[in-house]
Amino acid sequence: MNRKVVIAGIGTEIGKTISSAIIVKNLQADYWKPIQSGFPEDSDVRTVLDLSNSKDSNIHPSIYNLKAPLSPHSAAELEGVEIILENFNLPDTNNSLVVELAGGILVPLNKKETNLDLLKKWNLPVILVSKTYLGSINHTLLSFEILKSNNIPIMGLIVNGEKNESAQRFISNYTHLPIICDINLESNWTPELIENYAKSVIWPA
Question: Is 38 assigned to a binding site?
Fold first, then answer.
């Protein structure tokens, strides 16, 4: 069964790229990150390619490769680039597809549009990546509510980082979303570790 999903985070540096590598490996899926900032030094595409180590996966080229490690609209302004929503057409593929957003759900693309507008355009189910830190419950629930209020389908959660059972229990009870993958705090990511997590993925019925 082919799936097309978007990996979205509750903020920046949440673990979206590692989560993407895990889901790419699980599905033997294609991967697409339409916007990269901090390129080429901070290449999430290269990270996913190296860690997923999936021979059947195609890496679709990003639309915007921006040099500054900033939010898309700020990096684009520095380079005199205009990010245009109409350019973000999904890649044509018969494979499963994992799409990774740049930053959080309301990160601006330009002066008037955000990642949320991309999600509305694509109308694909979202896997929301959460990470445990002070304030993460609030950020997770805000992300959940903005997706829900805009009728964006949410497939489930990926929980990343140090374990906090109380926080995870509250988030699960509030959102009623299944946990698709529970990622520990790891010091060194390898293809073997990604494969182990890929085997642990539980897709909702």
Answer: no
